[in-house]
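Consider the following assembly input.
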Amino acid sequence: MKLSTRGRYGTRLLLDLALHGRDGPVQLKDIAHREQISLQYVQHLVTPLIAAGMVRSTRGARGGVWLAKSPQEIKLSEAVGVLEGSIAPAECIDDPKTCPRSDFCVTRDIWGELKEAMDGVLGSTTLQDLVERQKRKQRPVEVMYYI
Amino acid sequence: MKLSTRGRYGTRLLLDLALHGRDGPVQLKDIAHREQISLQYVQHLVTPLIAAGMVRSTRGARGGVWLAKSPQEIKLSEAVGVLEGSIAPAECIDDPKTCPRSDFCVTRDIWGELKEAMDGVLGSTTLQDLVERQKRKQRPVEVMYYI
DNA sequence: TACTTTGTTGAGTATATTAGTCAACAAGGA
DNA sequence: TCCTTGTTGACTAATATACTCAACAAAGTA
């Protein structure tokens, strides 16, 4: 049940854009450096995000990438969906025809509930939520005063 | 984020035992036949369940396997845990030391919530729940009258 | 225009995991 | 004793993962 690096790194990449993409394009090499991912892998992670219209880009000197929407409009469920494909724990959830037992299989029901539970988390969290959590983590002492 | 066949088939194996293990040991070949899994693979699926004390067995003619506890005492979280290992979507959830970012990584928090959500489903479902769902599915027409 | 910087794309690859099979063995019942 | 059944470990084909390499395309700069 592991998420692949695509899903995990890709989410970090988006968060990085949300945090650092306020003024102009963010260069892939900067993302690579901050997130400690090779530039070459970052290039591949960003491709499906651009294809999905979640990220925009421009080439050439001073080029880079940025979020196509504001962070509060980007749910993690979309991001993970683009990066990872379906998060269904079994193929039969997305396509009942892949298993002849689908009609009467109760374990299938459970895998479906598992997917629902995950969708619940990822569908209710936006990049903006991550940004805010990050800010709180970066200033643990200051936040303490408000608790 | 797929569950492997071990987790899926193994859960079906346990459900099969809950459904058919009322009178004496259930033979692996019968499970294999009903669940449409090769006998050889069933043999391998049952091994960790026996090792974990979830299933008991006896060899020889008329041998077989059976649940060590009653179905309502067996949570799916235990079963999947034995069969699949941890369901954590990322290694850093089980062991923060595997990633130097664990202390301040907010995406890690989300993967942790994902695990919690899955634990919520699997921890609140027992084999007995599956048995009851199965009974309802097998008699869809009769159930209709009660809805 | 020429050059440099940056993103884009596709091919290739080492490693690990999955999903099994094969075969020898152990033990219990008839 | 023989047959039936579970136990165990070695082995393997196929697939997925997690990348790297390298050629290319487009946009800015001098």
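Residues 106-123 of chain B form the longest helix (18 residues). Ask yourself how this observation constrains the way the partners meet.
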